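S1.2 Input.
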Amino acid sequence: MDDAWNWATDVVLGVTGPLVPSKGETYKPFDYLVSDIARRSGPDELPDLVWDEALRVVDNSRRSLVAMVARSAGQLDVAKNALVPLVQADDQEALNILGALEVSEKNWEDARRYFARASKLGDSTGTHNLGVLCALKDDLHGAREWYTLAIERGELQSVGALGVVYERLGNRDKAVELWKRGTEAGDPGSAFHYAEWLRAKWQSDESIEALKVAADGEIPFATLSYAGVLLRKKDHETANAYVAKAYSEAVKQGTLGDPLGSLMAGVTAYSFGNVDLGRKWWERARNNGCEIDWALFEAPVDFPGLRHLAVSWETLDKVGEEQVRLLMQTLWAGDCLDCGYPLGGGVPALYVDDMRTHADAKIFHFGLCRFPHWNDSASISIAKDVGISWKSASAPVVIGKDASHVIPALFVNPSFEEAQFVMNDDQTWQATSQYGPHSVLSSALDLRPLWSGFPSKNVDSSALAFVGEEEVAVAALHQVWSAPATREFLTLVGQSGGVLLVLSSALGPEDVYTMEALADVLQSWDAMVRWVPLRREIANNAT
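S1.3 Output.
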């Protein structure tokens, strides 16, 4: 023991020892060691003996701090015991913290008693919390009275909450009036609701201004959404700063036991591609009683398409897990269809617009630009026109049993970020690619599944092929797809009088396509084909 003590108090590397002198003849750990452990561990890792010692030595000035840390560690009994002396002395902050602890355990009457005691002492936060309790129990008239009194006492956050109560009571005009008033006063909660109302009224500029007020507050949901707005405005540096702020605030709230904070910490982690961290936060949110409206899907590493996808439970209920996984094979992480920036390694969100006989399925940045949703309302949420990512390649295709006939083919994946669900005769949904089997666009373009055989060389005008210097292109349905082509390939196009158009989601975002890879595309389940004639005057010149 003496040797150990001498080592721990001796200078290391000419700086200091692990233990340094403290008051009297005592020693304490060097500050860096304490802060390093604090960075690398959480309160839930502390052993019971530490909590017991904390309760023994803590003075009244730090009891609320111990209670908050204990709450974040799930040590609710420790948190309550730390607050007892303060509550007995009518400390208003302690009364509110203890009331919140009782709420987390659904001890409504005990919570009401502590909040009422704080409110009676003139505390506006306690008054506000009484309104929250009434709202949780659907006592809207009681909530209205308490929120009104809290506002009279100067509680700004009660303005937005009172607006929500009026909205639930059916008085939307009064709700909007309160939200506007709260926004002008700088209340983030009011600003968040006011921004949503303005957005629904297509008042974009005013909505963004209100959203910024909410984003600058302590609402991670609003902060992340505002980061998406900045991306759409091409201000990616400021957007990154707001993403960091959203995550930081969500982590702080989640660490203190707020389930919504944990939820948004998970969303933000997913949005920048840290799936393991996202799962950790979502698990914490569930353990704290949060019902998460979205499911995370993960595909095997060797599968084509998306590796991860966030889907709403409503979408999952409508189409089933098998169809979600099939849809993932038709989509690739190209660019977000709202802001236009790459989806990268982040988990995209699936947003579906239900058109009754079919549904358009698109992917966006999770949280920043969209949340997973199945939209079956008459109002379709229009994505910014950033363009669909597509990929193409040209190559000759050998047909016939004797491999004697060679025709030119243009391979195209027309969409990385959009696919479809189509309604079957039995009223079930079937996943397909944008031009895949049974899709609306495949019918309009007169496509046929490749497995049904090669199409005849028809001469209709719904699609036309063009050739240029080292390039071949097809124009169809207001789309033009092109690919580099060799001189030999262009000669083959002229001799054949057109090209075989092959549309398939199996053509991934790789830069180079081998003949073996293109052969796999021909065998994909959603490969759709048609013959596209060369424009007549070009065909004559080529001949």
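S1.4 Remarks. The chain has 23 helices and 17 strands.
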